[in-house]
Amino acid sequence: MLRSGLRAALLHASRRGSVRYAVEHAPVSRGVVKRFVAGDVVGDAVRVSSELVASGLAVSLDHLGEDTTEPEHAEAAAAAYVTLLGLLKEAGLSTRVEVSVKLSAVGLALDRSLATDLVRRICVAAADAATTVTLDMEDHTTTDATLEAVRELRTDFPWVGAVVQAYLRRTEADCRDLVVAGSRVRLCKGAYDEPDSVAFTRSNDVDDSYKRCIAVLMAGEGYPMIATHDPAMIKEAERLIAECKRTPDSYEFQMLYGVRPEEQLRLSNQGSTVRVYVPYGSDWYGYLMRRLAERPANMRFFLRSLATRK
Ligand SMILES: Cc1cc2nc3c(=O)[nH]c(=O)nc-3n(C[C@H](O)[C@H](O)[C@H](O)COP(=O)(O)OP(=O)(O)OC[C@H]3O[C@@H](n4cnc5c(N)ncnc54)[C@H](O)[C@@H]3O)c2cc1C
After folding, report:
1. Which residues pair with 274 in a beta bridge?
2. Engineered SS bond to 254: which of 71, 168, 227, 306, CB 3.0-4.6 Å?
3. Best of 230, 251, 266 to mutate for ligand 1, by most ligand atoms within 8 A of CB?
4. Helix (H, G, I), strand (E, B) or coil at 69
5. 293 Cα–ligand 1 center, Å
6. Each residue of 54-86: pLDDT tens digit?
7. 277 and 288 part of one domain
């Protein structure tokens, strides 16, 4: 992880309209986006999924978009997922490809029950395609609402996945609540700019929390989804998989599209399920900025390219 101060500054700057305009219109953005995003349209999502599945990997597709403030945009986001799930079913991909949804993309800021109802609509389409839905986790002001939506949706769709972020001080306790039988839980470090009052801000503390959370998830009865590219976290997960005698069908690793593809194949070839998180769509700004803030090498390349182009 980047030094937390620099990372926070980048995430903060990314919220300024002028920065957004510059990034969205810089020719170099296209190249960087291409590395992390499948493409602009649903056909790109299906094509990339098909390629990843053919190489032995599983997929979670994210229709890009967040912080929706218009009801019709929330409806359109849900409709996009329903269309996608129909296409995945038709292509015979839905046994290996699920979807990830952000509550803010389907109108959390407008009305939590509207957002939950729209996710319910997506869940109906996912059930018809025999696949699953995971609710991404956003900044800490949405944690309670998102976990509550997961609880509500699980009454009818027990396979709905939850996400927890190891950088939040509350997360070890959330993991203990979530480790019931069948509960799909994705553990990530967390990608937002959070205050010290709610989050660990030193990377060593985040890593220690991540390790404690893996231990809780692996020892519990749920289905842990270990989402990280960090070799130390992967090693710790492998140690606990062996110690807890987890069978390969009782957990999975997850990584982002475009990040450590050779490690994705190594873990998959060793017999673990590896799911690649693949975003698609034209609303890529927020996603790209979080990826750049995580990785100094990407940011340096990006800034150099911006500075040398007209
Ligand atoms: C499948 C998936 C789903 C996610 N969902 C969410 C979510 O819902 N909410 C949320 O807040 N966040 C989410 N994230 C993002 C996550 O919170 C982190 O911001 C992101 O994964 C980076 O953390 P890391 O664990 O990879 O470790 P970092 O601390 O970023 O990196 C640790 C080490 O990993 C290795 N590494 C990392 N990136 C690279 C790279 N590009 N190339 C080579 N080595 C690399 C390096 O050795 C590095 O030192 C998700 C991540 C994944 C993988």
Report:
1. 253
2. 227
3. 230
4. coil
5. 11
6. 999 999 999 999 899 999 999 999 999 999 999
7. no
